[in-house]
């Protein structure tokens, strides 16, 4: 947290989580049309922002999704499960830091 006041830190985390939830929703929509480029883009963004906030689990899942999209190396069902795991993980962080 460093020099950031606790209330500001909480606002930043809330912004990250709100944005992450929206990106996951867009990934789910992109999966319906099999648009791996969109999924890859959002996974890449979440990987970086998760890293910046120190949310290692979000970073790792996002990186896995990104790599699977780049390599086109998993089924839609597997990708759906990974995106859902990412969504569940974000929800876990939301309940820990926001609620």
Q: How would you characterize the overall build of this protein?
A:
The chain is mainly α. The chain has a single domain, classed as Up-down Bundle (Four Helix Bundle (Hemerythrin (Met), subunit A)), CATH 1.20.120.160. 84% of the residues lie in helices and 0% in strands. It contains 4 helices and no strands. α1 runs antiparallel to α2, α1 runs antiparallel to α4 and α3 runs antiparallel to α4. The two termini are 19 Å apart. The relative contact order is 0.16.
Count every beta strand, where a strand is a DSSP E run of 2 or more residues.
Answer: 0
Q: Portion of residues in helices? A: over 70%
Radius of gyration: 14 Å
CATH architecture: Up-down Bundle
Q: Write down the overall geometry.
A: elongated
Number of domains: 1
By CATH, the superfamily comes out as: HPT domain
Look up the CATH topology.
Answer: Four Helix Bundle (Hemerythrin (Met), subunit A)
Mean pLDDT rating:
95
Beta-strand portion reads under 5%
User: Which residues form runs of ≥5 with pLDDT under 50?
Assistant: none
Number of helices: 4
Question: Which class do the helix and strand fractions yield?
Answer: mainly alpha
Distance between the termini: 19 Å
Modified residues (Phosphohistidine): 44
InterPro entries: HPT_dom_sf, Sig_transdc_His_kin_Hpt_dom
Pfam families: Hpt
Domain HPt: 5-97
